[in-house]
Amino acid sequence: MPYRAALFFPIAVLGWGCATASRGSSEILQIATVPPGASVSLSTGAQCTSPCEIEVKRRGPLSVTASFGGCESATVYVASEVDRAGGWTLAGYGALFLGGLVYENTKEVAAEVGSAIGTAIACTPVRIVGGEPEDCPRVEVKEDANLWVPILVAGIPAGVDLATGALNARHPNPLMIELDCVEASPSPDEGSS
Questions:
Q1: Containing structural domain, residue 28
Q2: Count of CA atoms in the C-beta half-sphere (13 A) of 57
Q3: I need a labelling partner for 8 at 20 to 30 A (CA). Which of 64, 74, 128, 168 fits?
Q4: Rounded to whole angstroms, how far apart are CA atoms 62 and 89?
Q5: What are 72's strand-pairing partners?
Q6: pLDDT single digits (tens) 71-117
Q7: 165 and 99 in one domain?
Q8: Domain check: are 47 and 139 in the same one?
Q9: Same domain, 130 and 171
Q10: Across-strand partners of 148?
Q11: Distance (Å) of CA 50 to CA 29, 62, 72, 184
Q12: Does the global pTM surpass 0.90?
């Protein structure tokens, strides 16, 4: 048993927070407005003049407000969601968890899978009809299954990435805000000349 821990420990240490290490917990939000040159402020306190790029955390609430002289200011909520790359990373953690579970219980799992396949082949017609004879046993999950290796290898890195928001991305990005501008009406002096 100790050799298994020695084998998985380096993998687990290197894998902790894979997305956090490769993608980071922040990203660049690109902001543009119509008309350009609007004053932009984020709920985080950051400010810029459009078009601009601002580094923002991948996780948490975020709203962007744009204002321009002669226009109504507009506020847009920018969502934080698990994107395709984050989803694939999360699926990879699931595969690592299952792989660790199979590795940790290889002999028992192989015997039970073989037994389950044999049972399924031999007993499926009986189950379809509705019978449950004595010679068709049910395969049950072992109560003493060792889960610490899969949790170490996949659970902790997945937790790190979920906590830091590294699996998320901001949507929409790039962000386009169209301001409702009122055209300036001619002054009374301009019309009389």
A1: 2-105+145-181
A2: 14
A3: 168
A4: 24
A5: 180
A6: 999 999 999 988 888 777 777 777 767 766 666 566 555 556 555 55
A7: yes
A8: no
A9: no
A10: none
A11: 12, 17, 16, 22
A12: no
